[in-house]
Amino acid sequence: MSWKTLALGIATLTLVLTAAESPKALATGGRELWGAVSIVPGRQGIVQVSGYTGPALGRGSRLTLTAPEGTEVTDTPLDASGYRGFVDTDGDSATYTYTGPAAGRPWQEQSFPFVIAVPADAVPGTRLTGCAMRLTDARGTRKDHGVCAVTVGLPEPTLTRPASGVALVARPETAGTAHPGSQVTVRHEDAQDEGVTGQGPEPGAEVCTATAGADGKWSCQPAAALPAGPGRLQATATLNGVSAVSEQIYVTVGTATR
Question: Residue 28: beta bridge partners?
């Protein structure tokens, strides 16, 4: 399976493990691997490992990633010659072995993707422990190592009401779905403003808030009338310090939209 084919079926959150960003790396000459990534419950994320700046290790050297506790490594989808990927049967770890020319520099200026699956019952905002990388030469001697912080992300909320393209009353009920227990905030922005509601230079005006129930459903009604004319609505869900936004919908208060 090619890298491009895999990427189409996986919600990808990329991690580039750079040596310069790690405090420990600075103390050890800037070679230790480090980074952070967020993956939504029940989904898979592609972790890109890179950053090795040490001497050439040559044929038979290996890069191994140990999965965070409670997760599994499911694939090593690197689409490049000279490397062989292998995933342990229990999914606890996966390895790339260099099989190219003996004089090559296999781990420099290259990134190595590992697919990690997070269980559906993982709690958003939780930092998972145990993720580690190890780079060894052909004799198994460790030449570099590192850790990564893997955080459970929050699924995107949905905004299913009001319907886009329908003339609205000034205080329309808004509703949708979100991760159970998350706080949902609906914001409104003039349709002529630049950017996306809640993500531009200034967030849109808060319309109403709600808490998603055990079934994931939420609803709320604006306390004040929305501005007349066209605008955009978007919902933001927040839980345990992580957040996610819905797709925006275009609405018109008072007259029908085009």
Answer: none
